[in-house]
Specification:
single chain; 219 residues; alpha/beta; Rossmann fold; binds 2'-deoxycytidine-5'-monophosphate
Length: 219
C-alpha cells in the first residue's frame, strides 16, 4: 500500500514525537523533514554560505547526501558519513534552518528529495508543508498545534534536558520569531491543508494525540 500520512504543525507542538510513535506503531518510515532543512543549514554554516546566496545554497542541496536510520527507537540522520543527529539540534540551527527554508531553491530541492523518499509509500511525513505542498494527495493529513505558551514550555524542557542554558523568556521569544518566519514566508508557509484534521494538543499528552490520530486512520 502506498499510504502517506502527513503531520504538520509549528515548533513545540509535539508533532515529532507523535509522528515517530505513529510510524513505529504502523511500521512505516518516519520522515523528519525539519531535520533535512537543519542539515542544509549546518552544511551552509560550515561552508560559510549566507542565507541570501541562493545559488550556493542550491549547490549545497544538489550535492547533499542525507540518510535517516533508526537506532534504539531514536531517529538518526547522517550527512555524508557523519552522524549529525545532535549537531543539527542547537538553538542556532533552529533559527538558521527556519531562515534557509524560506529560500525557493532550497525548498524545491527538498521537495524533490522528499517525494523520492515517499515514492514507495508507507511513510509518516512530518514538517510544515507536507499536506499542503509536498504530498497534497496524502491519504491522511493532520495538523498538530498547541497554545504558544505551552509550546514554549515544552521547548524549554527539551533544552533543559539537553543541558542547554537558556531562559524561558528567550525560548518564548525565539519560538515566536520562528513561528512568524515559518508562517509568513512566501513559499509553502506553515498552515493546515484544507483537508487536514487539526488537533489542538494544548491539553493532551503525546499518547492521547497518537490515539486520536490512529483512531482517525482506522475510521
Ligand atoms: O520541525 P523543525 O523545527 O525541526 O524544523 C526546522 C525548520 O525547518 C523550521 O523552523 C522550518 C523549516 N521546515 C520547513 O520549512 N518545512 C518543513 N517541511 C519542515 C521544516
Amino acid at each position: 500500500m502506498n499510504t502517506i500520512i502527513t503531520i504538520d504543525g509549528p515548533a513545540g507542538s509535539g508533532k515529532s514525537t507523535v509522528s515517530r510513535m505513529i510510524a513505529e506503531t504502523l511500521q512505516f518510515f518516519y520522515l523528519d523533514t525539519g531535520a533535512m532543512y537543519r542539515a542544509v543549514a549546518l552544511q551552509a554554516k560550515r561552508e560559510g554560505v549566507d542565507c541570501g546566496d541562493s545559488k550556493k545554497l542550491e549547490r549545497i542541496c544538489d550535492n547533499i547526501d542525507l540518510n535517516f536510520w533508526m537506532d534504539g527507537g531514536c531517529n538518526k540522520l547522517s550527512l555524508g558519513s557523519e552522524d549529525v543527529t545532535l549537531a543539527i539540534r542547537s538553538p542556532e540551527m533552529d533559527m538558521l534552518s527556519s531562515k534557509i527554508s524560506a529560500v525557493k531553491e532550497v525548498r524545491d530541492a527538498m521537495k524533490t528529495l522528499q517525494r523520492k523518499m515517499g515514492s514507495k509509500g508507507r511513510m509518516v511525513a512530518e514538517g510544515r508543508d507536507m499536506g499542503t505542498v509536498v504530498f497534497p494527495d496524502a491519504d491522511y493529513k493532520f495538523f498538530v498545534t498547541a497554545l504558544p505558551e505551552i509550546r514554549a514550555e515544552r521547548r524549554f524542557k527539551e533544552w533543559q534536558d539537553r543541558g542547554e542554558i537558556v531562559s524561558m523568556a528567550e525560548v518564548a521569544k525565539e519560538l515566536k520569531k520562528r513561528d512568524n518566519q515559518d508562517t509568513n514566508r512566501d513559499i509553502a508557509p506553515l498552515r493546515p491543508a484544507k483537508d487536514a484534521k487539526v488537533i489542538d494538543s494544548t491539553a493532551l499528552n503525546q499518547n492521547e494525540v497518537v490515539e486520536l490520530i490512529l483512531k482517525e486512520i482506522k475510521k
